[in-house]
Amino acid sequence: MDGSKTPAAAPVLILLGPPGAGKGTQARMLEDSFGLVQLSTGDLLRTAVKAGTPAGKAAKAVMEAGDLVSDDIVIAILRDRLAEPDTAKGVILDGFPRTGAQAEALDALLAENRQRINAAISLEVDDAAMVTRISGRFTCGGCGEGYHDSFKPTAKDGICDKCGGTDMQRRADDTAETVASRLEAYHAQTAPLIAHYDQQGALIRIDAMGAIDDIAGQLAAIATRVTA
Ligand code: AMP
After folding, report:
1. Is the peptide bond preceding residue 18 cis, with omega within 30 degrees of 0?
2. pLDDT tens digits, residue range 67-76?
3. pLDDT tens for residues 18-69?
């Protein structure tokens, strides 16, 4: 030992959980309090769809049906985003990986950067409650803050608490019919990753059926511990 210190690698947190489990809401709260960057492949894909890029054109109908976009497209989008300098602070992956191939690609990408997964946090919820959660949610188009008709309404009708914006948006795939396909895709293709991260010793399960702030408190405690 020569006593020299290697700089700590930037932390990598993964949020796993079915649609409606609160990954986006919790990732944004962690981003605010820990200075990490939220990487949501769903958001990146929606941006690509709006911009009409080749990836967006290929993904549009798949997303509307509630199916998973092909691994090639999603891995390429994530790789490009991870190459941007702001991610050097550390990242919270929200909605990626969703398949075994994506998990392997992520392991390889992180190994290239001498990074590792500090924690893969599984937000555990009852499927039955997810339809209600998803069908009531909306987002501020200005700052991205997420809301829910019953569980987290804006203080003033139609006005964002965070930025004062009034452009409230609902996702095209947040319908009862599409949620059923999205839940099916989660159980068939993504839930097996829980065992993958358990084997890596990175898995932490939390009960995500409670109040948003309680869950945020548990996640903040985990983030503090694993990024120390
Ligand atoms: P989300 O915003 O995470 O709920 O994602 C919305 C939709 O984008 C999903 O239903 C999929 O169609 C697609 N999507 C997002 N992330 C991925 C991913 N990692 N792999 C495949 N499809 C994805």
Report:
1. no
2. 999 999 999 9
3. 999 999 989 999 998 888 999 999 999 999 999 999 999 999 999 999 999 9
Q: Which of 59, 187, 63, 46 is nearest to 130 (CA)?
A: 187
pLDDT at 3: 44
- Its pTM stands at 0.90
In the sheet that 137-140 helps form, which strands lie side by side, from edge to edge?
146-148, 137-140, 168-169
> What is the identity of the amino acid at 113?
N
CA of 152 to the centre of ligand 1 (A): 23
* Burial of 56: CB neighbours in 10 Å, binned 0-12, 13-18, 19+: buried
Copy the structure tokens of residue 81. Answer: 């985003």
**Ligand 1 mutation target, pool 16, 46, 60, 68, most atoms within 8 A of CB:** 68
Is residue 190 within 6 Å of ligand 1 at its C-beta? Answer: no
Q: Is the CB of 137 under 6 A from ligand 1?
A: no
DSSP count for the chain of H helices, then E strands: 9, 8
Q: What is the pLDDT of residues 153-197, one digit of tens each?
A: 999 999 999 999 999 999 989 988 899 999 999 999 999 999 999
For the chain, what's the residue count?
228
Residue written as token pair 């829910």: 148
